[in-house]
Amino acid sequence: MNEFLKFAIETAQQAGAVLRREFERPKQISYKGEVDIVTESDRRSEAMIVARLKERFPGHAIVAEEGGGAVAAGAKYCWHVDPLDGTTNFAHGYPCFAVSIGLSEDNEPIAGAVFNPVSGELFTAARGEGAYLNEQRIRVSLVDKLANSLVATGFPTHQRKRSANMNYYWEFTLRSHGVRRDGSAALDLCSVACGRFDAFWEFSLNSWDTAAGVLLVREAGGIVTDLGGGPYHLGGPHLLASNGLIHDEMKEVAAIAERAGKP
Q1: Are residues 193 and 120 in the same domain?
Q2: Parallel/antiparallel/unpaired status of strands 178-180 and 77-85
């Protein structure tokens, strides 16, 4: 196992232990916007992760959701940290949340770990080395028709009334077995990687939401693009991840949804 992945795993598990201890306690909640919340657990988890990264890799850049990152001018490597992906779930006692830590080299994901401290599921991947769930190799599903697929999405916590995703949700719901919205993009991507979901799409995700999960999908044999089928870059405006077999159908339905949403 390479040193980057090993460090990401150890750090994700330590941060997950913080979240697990605090999961059933009363939470101190504040708001970053009208409905976008942050808990003290987010901040404690991030502070621990960032401190470890700075100590171990002082020349690396760090981008973290709660703003605790570190700028390293011209850095080749950048860590993308979501200390608590699924904060709303966590705050409401819904056990679908995770720590997500991904490393990119020249903006391409090369290592990542996603840890759900309630289920104990640890998803890991390193570029060229495959994707794993609790050290067991995982692969995307073999479902080859959208009509037989279970897919997933998410909705932004801001500007929800203007979200274009309502049209996409409608179109994909009509054409698939169902659409799930679990509230953790990192875990949704992991579910594509291990075949629980056949595809996932979403808008306005940040690099800390996707760096680890995108690599997991690719290393599990899946495809990640933007909704039009073009290259996906970390922090891009929209993302489409699938098992590859239904990717063209997903793109076609996305195009239908886009046209339906235009005046």
Answers
A1: no
A2: unpaired
Digit-coded pLDDT (tens) for 203-253: 999 999 999 999 999 999 999 999 999 999 999 999 999 999 999 999 999
CB contact at 8 A, 147 and 175: yes
Whether residue 172 sits in one domain with residue 102: no
Task: Please indicate, yes or no, whether residues 167 and 234 belong to a single structural domain of this protein.
Answer: yes
Among residues 84, 117, 137, the one where a domain terminates is 137
Alpha carbon 109 to chain centroid distance?
A: 12
Task: For residue 218, give both structure tokens.
Answer: 């690719």
SS3 sequence of 122-184:
EEEEECCCCEEECCEECCCCCCCCHHHCEEEECCCCCCHHHCCHHHHHHHHHHHCCEEECCCC
Query: Same structural domain for residues 128 and 14?
Result: yes
CATH code at position 15 = 3.30.540.10
Residue of 239, 35, 219 whose CA lies nearest to 114: 219
The amino acid present at 92, given as its one-letter code, is H
Range of the domain at 105: 3-137
The domain tally of the chain equals 2
| pLDDT per residue as tens digits for the range 68-101 | 776 776 789 999 999 999 998 998 899 999 999 9
Do 112 and 191 reside in the same domain of the chain? no
Give CA torsion, residues 132, 137, 138, 144, to 10 deg.
Answer: 150
How far apart (Å, rounded) are the C-alpha atoms in residues 259 and 263? 9
- The neighbour count for residue 205, using CB atoms within 10 Å, is 22
Non-local (6+) Cβ contacts of 119 within 8 A are 95
CB 43 within 8 A of CB 66: yes
Same domain for 119 and 215, yes or no, is: no
Would you say 55 and 11 are in contact if contact means Cβ atoms under 8 Å apart? no
